[in-house]
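Before any further analysis, we paired sequence with structure tokens, yielding the entry below:
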Amino acid sequence: MDLLERDSYLAELNAHLAVADHGTGRLILVSGEAGIGKSSLIEEFTYQHRKLVRVLWGACDALFTPRPLGPLYDMAPKIGGALAGLLNSGASSTMIFSVFLEELQRVPAIVVFEDVHWADDATLDLLRFVSRRITQTSVLLVISYRDDELGPHHRLRIVLGDLATIPSARRMALKPLSIDAVRSLVGNRTMDAEKLHQHTGGNPFYITEVLANPESEVPGTVRDAVLARVARLSSSGYGVLEAAAVIGPRVEPWLLVAVTGAEGPAIDECIAVGVLIGQGDELAFRHELARETILEAISPLRRQNLHRSVLAALKSSPGGQSDLARLAHHAEASGDHESVIEFAPAAARQSAAAGAHHEASVLYALVLRYADHLSLNEYALHLMAYSRQRNLTDQPDEAIRALRMALEVCRKLEDPLMQGEVMAILTIMLRNNGSNNEAEQTSQAAISLLETLPPSVELAMAYRAQATLCLANGDYPEAIYWGEKAIAHAEKFQDLFVLAMAHIIVGSAWLFLDYEKGRKYLEARLVLEHEIGNAVHIANLYAYLGASCGELYQFTSAERYLSEGIDYVADRGLDIFVRFMKAWQALTLIHLGRWNQAAEITTQLLESPIGSTIRRVPMLVALGRLRARRGDPGAADALKDALQLATNTATLQHLGLVCAARSEANWLAGDRQRTLEEARVVYDLAISKKHPWFAGELAFWRWKSGEMVEIQPWMAKPYVLQIAGDWQAAADEWARLACPYEQARAMADGDTQAQIAGLHIFEQLGARPDADLLRKKLRAAGAVGISRRPHPSTRKNPFGLTNRQYDILNLLISDLSNAEIAARLHISPKTVDHHVSAILSRLGVHSREQAAAKAQNHPNFQKK
């Protein structure tokens, strides 16, 4: 079928290729519903340039669990060199990514990643890695995906959010064909073009299937159209087609022959009818929807037998034996439990090594379904491996459940060492998920058990777990004590993981006792780990440094560590660390006065899965503080959720963070009594732990509420200065710490000149409640020339909206529904609801129509 109404897209791709060819690579995100013609467009584009530039094409497969780095395996034969060897050698993803990037930097190319809605974690990390460096190449990187299959929490949504911020990225959303295009395709056929357009929605694939059977009525579904097309095949041809559907999106001719025994004419028949096409040395379905239709039509028994035949053929082939995820897929589908147990664990380990942790967890879950065929020891080990992968994908509840099961199995085995190891790991996971009381009990049980045995690595793990709990509780000398015990044992047994983590805990504890000593300790460890190249250790170091510096109000340092850490782990399959660091980054940016940027981060985090308590608490506190300081709705709800999570942890680390934020929010809401009550909740605990910042801020809010407080010399200096009445010194101290909001709050206690300067800061930040309070105070004191509110034109975005809210306001003007806005911006409808509520509040209107009208009448509002 001719490519109708696609000339503008081809022209756009040609323009981007010209830019890339001059040494500035480009990223193109091609989206659209299934059958809209993404592959046809890209194929036509690459065909036009096939003699002028190298084309590398890789596709993601809709298998039980995708092959790790599947598209790279497709490209490897054409690339040659070291890449193919690295892929099959178990090399680290970092090395594979670097070699691939070096290859892309060698010569100009068009590189296509097709159907990334089915991509594995490692492929998504590869795309992040390459996309962020694409301008260093002469490559046009084209990524296609179905936007109609992305649920609110689809992994690709988060990646798309990251890629969309890259300056070289461009979006290309394909539209359905118009009624005129459909009329052109129908031509002289006796078929109702309008009815065809209505039934197919202008989808090119659906239209093609119907036009392939012009003598029939327009079918109600594409399934009917596909089956009508293949009904013309002989029994041998249809058998080949069924086998090809079972084999998968990519079909090797030798494998098809091995499974069916078919000869060339039967395969040619499938090509002639237009269902199978040739792609290089392989066959493929013309469209995945056609393969899915054929697959669904096969009877369960025949489908199982075909999978069994495919598995046998792959096992007997040297090339097939190395494709572990594919072997596991066909083993599961054929009901061959022995082959599942043989291939799935190896495939899981291969996926984990490549950074595809989600796929690894799915494969381990597959093995665990066959627990009756495993020994107790194997079952326990697979449970532990499964738990680790679930933890790395930020699914703490499932990770903890698996460890509890492993612990029961270890007790049946009467293996105290393994039992102690499981309890040590469980301690950390319980703590991360907010169950600190149970974590304490589990930790003590692990130490008590393991100390009755000879010294071991497992005992070092238990000491490290106890050190982690002490750090969370604010017991810093005890954290150092247990951490150094863990280090001594880990060094004896050369366990690099426990050794690194124990050093991180000790260094973090020193940060709170002696900031400079702790910082130098952890900086030195960071240099060492970079030399070693262990990504998990480096990620932990950045996370601990960033969060601890943030807790100690060293926000400039925190922002640096967090930014470096997020950049480092973003394309290494460690999303759990990215989300944790982004939560703290949002909180840090709020204190640094970069509120719009913080709002973008919190919005993105809201779209990701629930995750662990240690990530959710700072994220919710950031959201609550930002909403409270801006006067936006929803602050109380966010901080209520944060309090519930923090209460479960029963640690100052989380309770101090939440109660300080709730004190401030109540003050801004004008509730002095609630401010005082919130400030009292953990004040005594903060005093007992001598936490300078939690104790200082809570003392400040008690003082603001009219209560006398006893100042301690170790409390945070700016709070002590302000309580003592030295607002100028307090403001100077906040300025030194780069905290403009707190600086303005101190200036609000000063003379008229200071108050006016503070008001200006509040207005620049968009701190509406504080600005209103201070404006009222100035007018009551007789100050003149104080406007009621700053004109919105003084803000970067009119009305002080975030960039995301500005985009949504533009779409409101276009009269799009929340669901349509969500689809357009690749966010969830619930997130759009939150943004619309904030927009209405910011504009001071009560409806979407009023918001649109007010925006269009604003002199500085620019319609996009």
Summary: The first strand starts at residue 26 and ends at 32. Confidence is low (pLDDT under 50) at residues 790-795. The CA atoms of residues 217 and 850 lie 48 Å apart. DSSP finds 47 helices and eight strands in the chain.
